[in-house]
Amino acid sequence: MAKSFNENNLNERKEFFISTIAKFCDKCGNPYSRDDLEIIQDTNLSTIIHFSCSNCKSNNIATYIKPMGISNRMPINTDLEVEEISKFALMKKTSPEEILDIYLYLKEKDKVTV
Questions:
Q1: pTM of the predicted protein model
Q2: Can you give the residue ranges of every domain in the chain?
Q3: Of 65, 70, 77, 86, which alpha carbon lies 20 to 30 A from 43's?
Q4: Each residue's pLDDT tens digit, 82-91
């Protein structure tokens, strides 16, 4: 279940994640600010945070596991916006049957236009 935050609480949480997970960009060393963070998902067990460097534009996603107080951060190369990441994070996983259906559908096409 996702939680909503008031502005003050949100800023405090962002400061906590900066001091706990990443104070500086791994790529260029620029210090992170609250504006560089977006909380993508927050549950009773974990929080998923998106870090975006305002200097070099590199992106990282971090997962903070609350009961253990540990985090894992990884760089991502994506053209997805934070809102899109949030949207897809809440979706159920794609089944192998759905993937096969799409594969068979596309296999019959000469051309695919988006």
A1: 0.68
A2: 7-107
A3: 77
A4: 888 888 877 8
